[in-house]
Every structure is written in C-alpha cells, then in structure tokens.
Amino acid sequence: MAAVYDNLRLHITSDSFYIESLNAGSRDVLVLDRINFEINLRSNREDIPPSLAESKLIYGIFGIIRLVGGPYLVVITGRQRVGDILGHTVWKITETEIIPFRKSLLNLNEAQTSDNRTYLAMLEYALAVDSFYFCTSFDITHSMQRLASADTGFHSEPLSSRADGRFLWNRHALHDFLDRPELQQFTLPIMHGFISITACFVQGRTFDLALISRRSTLRAGTRYFVRGIDSNGEVANFVETEQVLIYAHHICSIVQTRGSIPLIWTQKPNLRYKPSLHLVGDQEKHLKYFNQHFDSQIVTYGKQVAINLVNHKGSELELARAFLDTVNKAKCQDITYEAFDFHHECGMSRWDRLSILMDRIALDQDQFGYFMQDRDGAVFMKQSGVFRTNCMDCLDRTNVVQSLIARRSLTKQLTQLGIFKPGHAIEQEFDLDYLLKQIWADNADFCSQQYAGTGALKTDFTRTGKRTKLGLLRDGMNSAVRYYKNNFADGFRQDSIDLLLGNYVISDSDNQQSPFPSMQQRRRPMILFFTYLAFSLFVIFALIPASGFTEQFSYILLWAGATFLMALYLLRNGVDFVNYPSLVHVKQKED
C-alpha cells in the first residue's frame, strides 16, 4: 500500500492549481484546471510556472465541493499531532482553506450570489468543527480486529479505497479522485469523531492507550432534526468507539457502539424545552427497518446487547416499550435487550448503583471478550459481540456506561498481559485512573458537541467518579445553551452537515430555485418579537410617571395580558420561530 503524500505545496495561477509532492523521491504534480475543471497527474515539477504562482504549504486535499459559483478546492492548511499508533502519526485538522476554481462570480445574478455566500458560509462552518482526523500511512477508519481479519488484497489497496465508507467524511468531496487509482497518493481519507493517544507508565511498564470514536456519515445530523432510524436501517448519532492498548508486541482492543433507538421517531423542536416525541408508521415498518439495522450490525460486529438507558416514565417510556416490543417481535437470538432506567436508579447521586447494570452484563462481556494479537499478526483472541448503548441522545448517559465497560475490559487486558496482578484494580493506580476518566470525559464532550452543540452532561462523574456542585452548574449552563442552539441555530448546522456530506447536491442549472426562506419569511417572527419588545418598553416607561395604585395596576395587568397572549401564541406556533434546515430536513409541523 502506498502512503498518501503528507507534504505538499499548492501553487495557484490564474489558469490552474498545481499541487506538488514534497516527499523524498517523488516528482508528482497534480494539476487542476480552473477553466475546464479537469484533473491530471504529471511527473515533472518543471511544469509549474515559475514566480507567477502564489505558493503555500498544505498537508492534504480534503476534496472538491461544487457550489452555485462552481467547484471549490478544499485543502488542509493546519494540523496538530495527536500521537502515534504502531509508528504511524495521527493528525487533527486545525485549519482549512476553501479556494474557488472560478476567479469571479460575474455570471451569477444577485439571488445566486447570495445563495453562494450562504453555501460557502455553511461549508466554512462544517469544516471549522474541531473533530476531523487523518493519517497518511495507517487506516484509522477500521478497528484493529477488522484490519487483522482482512486479507492481503485489502491491505494492498489505497487508503481511500479501503476506508470504511461509514466513517469517510470527505467521500463526497473526493468523488473526482476515488475512481482514479493513479491519484491515490493525493487522496486522503478524513475521519470525524474523537481520537486520544497517550503513553502510560504503570507498575514499571510503559504502554500506549488510545481511544477512537468514529462518527458515521450515514445518518449524520443534529440532535432534534435527526432522530431514530431511516429506510436504509441507519440510525442517528451512530458512533463506533474503540479503546486500544498497545504494549510491547501486543495489541488489545474493545469496540462498542452507540446509536439512536432503531425505530422511526421524531422530536421536532418547537420552543418547548422537551418537544413532543412521535413514533411514526406502523409496527410492520418499524420491524422492517429495525431488522435492517441489526442485520448489518450483527454481520459487522457479531452478537448485540442493546443497553437502553431511557426513563421508565413519560414519553421516554413509550419509546422504551416500543423498542422492547420490536426486539421481541424480531425473535433474533443474536440480540439481547437490557433496560436500565439511568435517572431513576442513579438519581440523588446514587452513582454506585451503576454496579447493578455492570453486574447484569458481566457475563455477556466475558463471553464477548476482546481483540488481542501480536505485532507479527498472530491473533490470540477476537471480540465476538458488542454492547450497543443508547439513551435519548446517545450522549451523556451512554458515555458514562461505555466508560465503565471499557474500564472493566482494560483491567482484564492489563492482567492478561502481566502488567496487573490478579485482583489489582485501575483505581489503585492514580495516574492511570485519572487519565482514563479524562479521555472518556473528553470523548463525551466531543461527541456531544457534534450532535447537540455543547459539551456533554454528567462529565463531572466521568472525570472524578462523583457528582459535584460545579458539575451540576455546568450541566445547567450546557442545557441552556443546548436549548438555544437546538431551537435557533441547528437548522444552519444541519444544512452545513448535509452540504459537506453530499446529502444535498447543488444543481448545475442556472434556473435552480433558492431553497432558503425569503426575507419576508425570515422577518415575520422578528417583527412579532420586536412588536412585543416595543410594547413592553412602552409599558415600562408609562409606569414611571404613573401615579396611584390603580393606574399602575392597569398597566401591569395590560402587560401581563399581552405577555400571556404572546406565550400562548409561541406555544401554538413555536415551529415558526425555530431555525429549521432548508436543504434536506425541511420543516414539517407535527399534527
């Protein structure tokens, strides 16, 4: 397998982009024509025009994305070293640049120019998320077990060709490159999620501990606009998380998954703190999509233990019952359902009660085992099943439970490798215990930022092993920010994700109608809000010179009446004030 070039120089002329490989022994130059948009590979650096070209160092090509104004080249201009896995350096993207092929947009009318600016802002927003990773010489989209199980032909393929499509976030952007083998050393696969790699020193031994969360592209989105399952059996917020231990000549890992409850359900934002939950469709349709999802999961990961952490009351209970009913109707021996009312069991800071769940799944975890091999390729053990954990959002509660499962597995691995003596616990090693808590809490924050728009809740427990007053305060602040973003910012964020992934492709037609709301539609909610604000200010200023209780009370009563009517209107028409997506997940009012 040829590694992807990790040092490049971009030369920009009026007619072409020249991307020169700076790797030793290479003379390759990738030429992207800015006029006819053709891509060609040359092996002569002298083809680059001297002195006339603007030149800059880049670290990879994210891809090409077409907007109204034509194609745009996206390149990586900043990176940060995360660490090394088996001698291969993993990088996090810190900065990108979007460069238009066309030198001007003079051929666009005013509306098209406005739309192009909006699309460009969406693309910039999506690329600015602090969670994109790459490695030019190692496949970070596959688990260690999948890599070990693959045949020789697989390992000889280019990184971009063999990457797991579920976790390839620039697949759409690379569509001009993927079918051309000669471009493989310029074709860099990008993963989205979280990676931490840390060297540990325990009991006189040194080993590397890595945590890798791979976020799926197949039903990606934001917290309220993407819920449940789709017709292809893909679920919202699906994340594969792998904890890897590398010691001497041995590699151990455990894989877990998280994903939205695999039924067809929605929870559209409408300004209420917790919008109404709706199950959509009949039982037959739920069962069909449920089976599609788990059939795929079983083929990929083996047996499944579905851990459901939602509440056993209110609207969450309705969803939990539907989940259990569908599991029973599926009658699949490879699926086990484990319900645990997290909030009820662990309420009032009774976090020790998580041991109830851990004891119930201990036998399954022992049966599933974990993956173990040596660096020569000999496999000693394979993981035969996974825990598929979910709560409502697959964020806070889910991460707490996954961290405990990973901790138990790590204890067994360290014991088998001879680093721990039998009966020794991670809690007895302060530095390792602290590190494990921190990386899992960071994982929670990254996954939460990507789906809900804020850091995770309950990370004080993950970081310290107990709930704190500061943690409760932080959770309250995050909940408030989540409310604001989910109602007033996530439409734009959802559109940004759909544009980046190619779920929405901009037509080449000049007569394409703008998908974005008209100025009149955008102004309507603001007009109502400012009318109420002006009325409120009028009442306040009228109260200042008012004399007597009767006059003051009349103004206050009038203000209270207007506030009541405003609140009633918002409750009934909240969706009109929500920032809904405009491209794919457009507004649909609930009945």
Distance between the termini: 55 Å
For the record, the count of structural domains works out to 3
- Helical run tally: 15
Strand content: 15-25%
Shape: globular
Tally the beta strands.
20
- Report mean pLDDT, rounded to a whole number: 91
Low-confidence stretches at least 5 residues in length (pLDDT < 50)?
none
Helix percent band = 25-40%
Structural class: alpha+beta
Biggest β-sheet description: 13 strands, mixed
Rg from Cα: 27 Å
EC number: 3.1.3.64
GO molecular function, one term: phosphatidylinositol-4-phosphate phosphatase activity
Domain SAC: 123-453
Protein name: Phosphatidylinositol-3-phosphatase SAC1
Report on the architecture of this protein.
The protein is α+β, with helices and mostly antiparallel strands and 591 residues long. It folds into three domains: 189 residues, no CATH class; 278 residues, no CATH class; 59 residues. Helices cover 37% and strands 23% of the residues. It is built from 15 helices and 20 strands. β3 and β4 form a beta hairpin. The mean pLDDT is 91.
Write the topology of this structure.
Elements: E1 8-12, E2 16-21, E3 29-33, E4 39-42, E5 54-58, E6 60-67, E7 70-85, E8 88-100, H1 110-127, E9 132-134, H2 144-149, H3 152-156, H4 159-162, E10 191-202, E11 205-215, E12 239-247, E13 250-258, E14 265-266, E15 278-279, H5 283-301, E16 303-308, H6 314-330, E17 335-339, H7 342-346, H8 354-368, E18 371-374, E19 379-381, E20 385-390, H9 396-416, H10 430-451, H11 459-464, H12 469-488, H13 490-501, H14 519-543, H15 549-572
Parallel strand pairs: 13-20, 16-17, 16-20
Antiparallel strand pairs: 1-2, 1-5, 2-3, 3-4, 6-7, 7-8, 8-9, 9-10, 10-11, 11-12, 12-13, 13-18, 14-15, 18-19
Helix pairs in contact: 1-13, 5-6, 9-10, 14-15
InterPro entries: SAC_dom
Protein name: Phosphatidylinositol-3-phosphatase SAC1
GO molecular function: phosphatidylinositol-3-phosphate phosphatase activity; phosphatidylinositol-4-phosphate phosphatase activity
